[in-house]
Amino acid sequence: xxxxxxxxxxxxxxxxxxxxxxxxxxxxxxxxxxxxxxxxxxxxxxxxxxxxxxxxxxxxxxxxxxxxxxxxxxxxxxxxxxxxxxxxxxxxxxxxxxx
Amino acid sequence: xxxxxxxxxxxxxxxxxxxxxxxxxxxxxxxxxxxxxxxxxxxxxxxxxxxxxxxxxxxxxxxxxxxxxxxxxxxxxxxxxxxxxxxxxxxxxxxxxxxxxxxxxxxxxxxxxxxxxxxxxxxxxxxxxxxxxxxxxxxxxxxxxxxxxxxxxxxxxxxxxxxxxxxxxxxxxxxxxxxxxxxxxxxxxxxxxxxxxxxxxxxxxxxxxxxxxxxxxxxxxxxxxxxxxxxxxxxxxxxxxxxxxxxxxxxxxxxxxxxxxxxxxxxxxxxxxxxxxxxxxxxxxxxxxxxxxxxxxxxxxxxxxx
Lengths: 99, 306
Description:
A: 6% strand; disordered N terminus; B: 8-stranded antiparallel beta sheet
């Protein structure tokens, strides 16, 4: 399982779809999400968002889950299905707190 | 090694993190994130009279076409309400103001009487009466949309996706408790510290690329009103701050909006939160009022590693 390949593939797909610029895409991100939306109802199958594609590619695929390939969490409860695994010692990229 | 930049925004801190190999993109990535945050603020800030949501409030009572961004943010807020059966309610804006939660917490006015409150909450939930069709939005008279619960998380999602889309790199965007990632995994994986207050128990986790993590707390954004302690997560049933069964709740999900939706709903549901989180199959960490930690849905337990 190669996480980097999975990530790069996602990025290439996303970049190819976007082209016109990231911000514009971001602002349009939800555009596809509400098409066909009716009063207080939501539908998940109407999305045409490029950003949503990114989430799917990198969020739900087993290919992109943290794994022993990265050397960061071998045997420590890694779960690509849940998106989280045991942390490693060293630097912290972010802290999640209530806000 | 990481390339990091941060700045203050929305009474919290925005943080953009790239792998060291992508450091040449850091300034441009920050600019990209700032643009997204500014656009979201312009669209739906409750604290700015010139935001689209506030400046067009009268017009929206009749219904009007709004910007795609505002429509998207409203959609995500309504979706959060639908997903949680109304526990995450975007129509509690008026109650938040009545409880004294505004740009400044001091000098909060008295709250409504229970009778007034019951009348205000009578009938169909207000969020079900908000009409959104395409970009046409109608907000019933007397309903004040407060997208705060989901808009910040949505901004993190959009900002991260925007950076990856523009530069083809992995990125982590943190807006206070809301952390979104997109693109390839950095060297060593995204390392996130889970901690609410300084004295609270901490944990360090690795976030898979493309996933997000969010925390809701009953210990932050607190104020006093008539001698009663308040916090900013309201129980829609009563229009009052939810019982602080949990000091904080942290959830990992494929999007930051979804993670934030579940953390907010968990605080509202109190003792019923674990069952709700298990039903949705998300990894979650809950810190009880007494400091005990509950881990669910595959959340890593460091005690099993030792």
